[in-house]
Design a protein that fits this description.
The protein is of the alpha+beta class. The protein has 17 helices and 20 strands. Helices cover about 35% and strands about 20% of the residues. A hairpin with a 3-residue loop joins β1 and β2.
C-alpha cells in the first residue's frame, strides 16, 4: 500500500490540506474548508455585539475543518505524518482538559480565539513594552498588540471572571495539535516570536496574574507532538500509526516548500497579510524596526528574523470590494490589473501608506492607518489601485533595506503564495521597487506542503529540511527581473515613503482619529 504525508495550513478564513505521496513526492489530493463562523468582527454567534477593532474566531471551527479535510484526503490512506501551519498569534483560553471557554461562556467575547489581527490589545502591549527588560532585546524593545501576552493581559484586565477559569492560554495551532493527539505540545515558533519565550529564561513576567501556570515550555519545530488518537483515526479513516508534528507559524512553515533552507535568504509569504523571514546562521543582530528573532523556531539550526505587513492582499480586496470594476470580485481584479498595467511608474502622481490594518514594521502599532497622498479631481480608480500595489511594495522594500542596512548579505529574494503566482503586476512592481530579481517558486499550496515537510522531518522520514525541500518542495521557479527605468522613478517615491513612515505628527494624527 502506498504511504503518504499530510500538511494542513490554517489561515485567516479557511484551512487547506494536501496529501503527498512519499514515494514520488507529488501532491495527489487537496481540499479547502471555509470556517463555519468566519471571523467575528461585529458580533458573536449569539448576536452579542463586539467593540471596534475586535477579530475573533470559534475554536470548534478548527476541529470541523480538520475532520472534513482529513476525512476527504486521508480516508483509506496510510498516512505516516501530519504537519500544521497556523496563523499567529491567535490564542484562546481553555480549561485543563482543552475545553475552549467559548463552550462554557458563549456570550463572553473574551472566551473566544483572538485572531492575529485582533487590534484591541494595543494599550496592553504599550504597558508591557514600557516595563522594559533584557527579554525585549530580541524584539526591538517592544511587543505588538497582535501577540499573546498583550491579548492575555486584555482578558485579565477586562474580563477577570474569564481569566479566573482559564487553565491554559494557548495558540490555536498548539491547541489543535493537542486535540488531535491528546498531548499538549507547544511549538517553539509560537512561543518565541509571539510570547517572547527564551531558552534558559522561559517566558517573561509581564505582571499578568498567574500567567506562568497557563503556559507550557515549547518544543523546537520538527518535533513529534504525539500520534493521531484512535478517535481521530476512526473519524477520518486514516490507516495506521500517524505522527503529528508540533505546529508552526503559517508564514514560517512555507520555508522548506520553496527551498528557503539556507542563510542569506529573504522570503516573503504574500497572503491577506505578508510574512517576511530572513534566514541567518550567525549570532543574532536585530536590525532596528524588525520585529523579532529566534533560533529553531522556523527551521532547525538557523536564526530566523521575522517581519511583515499587517495588511497585504486584503488591502487590495478591500479596494475591489469598495470600488468594483466588474460583476464579480475576480472580474474586478482582472480588470484593475489589466488597466493598471497601462499606468507607468509614477504617472498616477500618488503615494500611499500600506497601513490598512495597522503597522508591523517599524512601529508595531495596530492604531495606525492607511493613507493616500496626491488625490485630485483627475485621479481615477485604476490609479488608486496602482498606488495601493506600489504602497505594498514600498513596505516590503523598507523591510528589505532594514536588513541590508543592518549588515545582512541578502543572496536571494523569494516570494510565494497565491498572490505571488497570480498577480503578475504586483510581482513585477515589487521587482521594480526593490531593484533586484525575485524568485517565484512554482508550487501549488506551498504553505500546506511546507507543513507536510515539517511532519516528515518529525518522523525522521527526511534527514533535514534541505532533504525535505528536494523531495517534496517546489520543482522549479520563475525569475522576475526589474525594469531599471521604473526602478529609478520608484527610488524617488520610496524616499518620500520613508519620510512619511517616520513622520510622528502623521502618526499622532492617525492615533487621534482612532480614539474619536
Amino acid at each position: 500500500m502506498n504511504e503518504y504525508i499530510i500538511g494542513l495550513d490554517y489561515g485567516s478564513a479557511s484551512a487547506r490540506g494536501v496529501l503527498l505521496d512519499i514515494a514520488t513526492g507529488q501532491e495527489v489530493a487537496s481540499h479547502v474548508h471555509n470556517y463555519r463562523h468566519g471571523t467575528l468582527t461585529k458580533s458573536l454567534p449569539d448576536g452579542t455585539l463586539l467593540p471596534r477593532s475586535w477579530a475573533l474566531q470559534v475554536a470548534d471551527d478548527y476541529l470541523e475543518a480538520a475532520r472534513d479535510i482529513l476525512g476527504r484526503i486521508g480516508n483509506g490512506k496510510r498516512v505516516r505524518s501530519i504537519g500544521f501551519g497556523f496563523t499567529a498569534s491567535s490564542p484562546l483560553p481553555c480549561r485543563a482538559d482543552g475545553t475552549p471557554l467559548h463552550r462554557i461562556a458563549p456570550n463572553a467575547p473574551h472566551a473566544y480565539v483572538k485572531l492575529w489581527k485582533h487590534g484591541a490589545a494595543q494599550p496592553q502591549s504599550e504597558r508591557i513594552s514600557a516595563m522594559g527588560g533584557a527579554w525585549l532585546d530580541n524584539f526591538n524593545g517592544k511587543v505588538s498588540g497582535e501577540w499573546l501576552m498583550a491579548k492575555a493581559a486584555q482578558i485579565a484586565e477586562e474580563a477577570p471572571e474569564i481569566w479566573a477559569v482559564t487553565d491554559k492560554f494557548i495558540e490555536g495551532g498548539d491547541w489543535l495539535v493537542w486535540q488531535l493527539t491528546g498531548v499538549e505540545a507547544r511549538g517553539l515558533g509560537f512561543a518565541a516570536y509571539k510570547a517572547q519565550f527564551q531558552d534558559g529564561h522561559g517566558y517573561p513576567d509581564v505582571g499578568i496574574p498567574d500567567m506562568a501556570s497557563r503556559l507550557s515550555d515549547p518544543l523546537p519545530v520538527g518535533t513529534p507532538a504525539g500520534d493521531l488518537t484512535d478517535e481521530w483515526l476512526a473519524d477520518t479513516g486514516i490507516i495506521g500509526s500517524c505522527t503529528v508534528a508540533v505546529a508552526v507559524i503559517d508564514s514560517h512553515v512555507v520555508l522548506p516548500a520553496v527551498g528557503a533552507v539556507q542563510a542569506g535568504t529573504f522570503v516573503a509569504a504574500l497572503g491577506t497579510s505578508a510574512g517576511v523571514m530572513m534566514l541567518d546562521d550567525q549570532p543574532p543582530r536585530l536590525p532596528k524596526g524588525i520585529e523579532g528573532v529566534a533560533f529553531n523556531g522556523a527551521l532547525r539550526d538557523l536564526w530566523c528574523y521575522e517581519a511583515g505587513q499587517a495588511s497585504f492582499g486584503d488591502t487590495l480586496a478591500w479596494f475591489v470590494d469598495a470600488f468594483p470594476n466588474g460583476s464579480t470580485p475576480a472580474e474586478s481584479f482582472a480588470n484593475y490589473e489589466a488597466e493598471a498595467r497601462q499606468v507607468p511608474a509614477g504617472a498616477n502622481r500618488l503615494l500611499a501608506l500600506d497601513w490598512w490594518n495597522g503597522n508591523r514594521v517599524p512601529h508595531a502599532r495596530s492604531d495606525l492607518s492607511g493613507m493616500i497622498l496626491g488625490l485630485n479631481m483627475q485621479t481615477t480608480a485604476v490609479e488608486v489601485y496602482r498606488a495601493l500595489i506600489e504602497a505594498l511594495c514600498y513596505g516590503m522594500r523598507l523591510m528589505h533595506d532594514l536588513f541590508a542596512e543592518g549588515g545582512f548579505a541578502i543572496d536571494k529574494v523569494i516570494m510565494t503564495s497565491g498572490l505571488a503566482s497570480r498577480n503578475a503586476l504586483l510581482i513585477q512592481t515589487m521587482a521594480d521597487v526593490l531593484g533586484r530579481e525575485i524568485i517565484v517558486p512554482k508550487i501549488a499550496n506551498a504553505t500546506a506542503v511546507g507543513a507536510a515537510i515539517h511532519g516528515a522531518f518529525a518522523t525522521g522520514m527526511v534527514a533535514n529540511y534541505a532533504d525535505g525541500a528536494a523531495r517534496f518542495g517546489a520543482r522549479g521557479s520563475r525569475r522576475v527581473v526589474p525594469d531599471m527605468a521604473a526602478h529609478a522613478t520608484y527610488e524617488q517615491l520610496f524616499e518620500s515613503y520613508r519620510t512619511l513612515v517616520g513622520d510622528r505628527v502623521l502618526q499622532d494624527t492617525m492615533r487621534k482619529l482612532q480614539e474619536l
